[in-house]
Amino acid sequence: MREPDDLTVDDARPDAQEPSPPAAGDRLPYVLGGRLRGRPSRAGWLSIAVIMAVVVIPLRGLYRGTGSSMEEGFMLVFPKRMLAGDVPNVDFLHLYGPGALHVLMGWYRVFGYTLEAQRGFGLLQHLGIIFAIYALVRPWGHRLATVAAVTVTLLVLTPIGLSALAWEGAVALALWSVVFGVRALHTTDRDRLLALAASGALAGFALSFRPDLVLALGIAHGFMWWKARAFRSASIGAIVGLTPMWIHLAVAGIPAAWRGMVTEPVKELRPGRELPQPPSFGKVDGALQAVVEGPADAPWWKLPALAANHQLWLWFWVVILCAFGVVGTTIWLRRRHGDTPQRLTLMCASLLGLGLLPQALQRPDSTHLAWGSCVSFSLLPALLAEVSTHVRPKLSGVRRDAVIAAVLALTMLVVMPFYTYRTYLLYTRISVGDKVGGYQVSRDDRNFWFGNVPLQVASQAAIDELDLLSTPGERLLVGPADLSRTIYSDVVFYFMFPELEPATYFIEMDPGLADDEGSSLADDVASADWLILTNFWTGWYEPNASSDFGSDAPNQVVADQFCLVGNYEDALVLLYRKCEQGDGISPAGIGIGAERRASLDRELAENA
């Protein structure tokens, strides 16, 4: 016989009347005010087992998969620089909040400064999102909560693997802040105050990870706090949760922090990173995605499917429709059929999802579309369950849940299979040894995974050479071979040499910032003892300002002051050292050279 805690709306008889708000003392699923402690039901354990199985199947492949050499690289390097005393926005460029870096500082102290430790933290962030979605959809039953959790798993594991980026941590914290906010709306007295304080603290902590979540959190929490009529407890909690931000503002100073977290990412960076809205129907706009979808690089997928660019175009519209549709339909249900605890939960969570929409719109490649839709799309099982009570009121709970699961699975198969199922299958094949993952480079106990053999061979050769020749305390600068076009930076090389001092503020390099006229990059280059310059991204083209050339001053410093030590795999990686008196300048050491630059200009013109 089931316990009262296990009863949910899908357990009602098909002809049951619409559920009414709970009476005081009723025991409901935790998100609606149920017991925090208690013996989990067998259905609950089974749901968790299914979700964890979906996560674990590709896990070995995710740990061995190709990493993003800049984004994953700076989540390794920045916390290490802070442990050495450097300050974000003062000593190095950082476009997001300090919260994730503070947490990773402690994480690396405990678990070691390794790629595996970083990816382990990324896994925890993903699990935070997955089980927050499960908790929010739990009032509609274990089955639909499991469907929602599996759906969001496919959306958060596939864009960036296990990289511990601040976005995933911020979304996980934001979702759990909504879980506690909803709980506060369905409890009373002391439990209510504690839930409100926890909700506010989690929201504040999320903002310390990603300040640009202020819109999403503001919409969702504004509604919840208005419903709760209790701004004081939640506000105190938010102030406490923002502790990493208060520390950062005190250490870095308000002007530097404002420039690094607001002015640079919003005003200066955006022209070089934004993509067309909607995405181009006839081609893939994002440079990184175009590489992945190339004939030689695209993973296996033999099922009928739209072309990659067509999927992105269609997905863009589905993201917008879903974000507004879940909120709009929930409002209609509450007005037409009355409010219930479940609909109130859906309202709060869907407002958070709506607030994430700008993340998808500002750069609609697959990563940002997944990030911007992971909440709204995963709430569809709950929304469809609510609608079905009026469209097909006599449909049994099991059949209803099966239909909803099938609709979601088919939608993902039609709209974005390359960016969900295909990527999940790729990591699964790596996990079971059916496919090679990334190609490993290593030094001592540090390693990383590149995307192909030439990148691996060139990178490992440069690492080995620099390991033999460098001395701890010397200064290293990593960047693209043409420093007048700072489209990307392979930050992972700094991770390989923690004993060398980064020679630049622009550890992360972005168009419109590092290559801007008057930036400090030329002086930074002149201060370096060693340069690692790569041609990994020389063919980068996007329909934005990243195709423009900036200041040539850093290239001139390379030509005037540095000698070429090694040219690996036809200049995929170039290693330079500061010339000493009497050294001759090798002609190969002058950046990419005038002839190569003219060739690149022609390529960009053709692509345009």
Features:
57% helix, disordered N terminus, two-stranded antiparallel ribbon, 608 residues, 7 strands, globular, mainly alpha
Description:
- The chain has 608 residues and is mainly alpha-helical.
- It has two domains: 4-11 and 45-254 and 277-426, no CATH class; 439-607, no CATH class.
- Helix content is 57%, strand content 6%.
- The chain contains 26 helices and seven strands.
- The strands form two sheets. A five-stranded mixed sheet has the order 4-3-5-7-6. Strands 1-2 form a two-stranded antiparallel ribbon.
- Strand 6 (562-568) and strand 7 form a beta hairpin.
- Helix 15 crosses helix 19 and helix 24 (521-527) packs parallel to helix 25 (553-561).
- It starts with 41 loop residues before the first helix and ends with a helix.
- The model is unreliable at 1-27 and 585-598 (pLDDT under 50).
Short description:
This protein is mainly alpha-helical and 608 residues long.
Q: Based on Cα principal axes, name the global outline.
A: globular
Low-confidence stretches: 1-27, 585-598
Summed up, the helix count is 26
Summed up, the domain count is 2
- Report strand order across the widest sheet: 4-3-5-7-6
Tell me the number of strands: 7
Instruction: Please estimate the helix content.
Output: 55-70%
What is the CA-atom radius of gyration, in angstroms?
26 Å
Class by helix and strand content?
A: mainly alpha
Major beta sheet, specifics? Answer: 5 strands, mixed
Mean pLDDT: 89
- Give the end-to-end Cα distance, rounded to a whole number of Å: 67 Å
- Residue fraction in strands: 5-15%
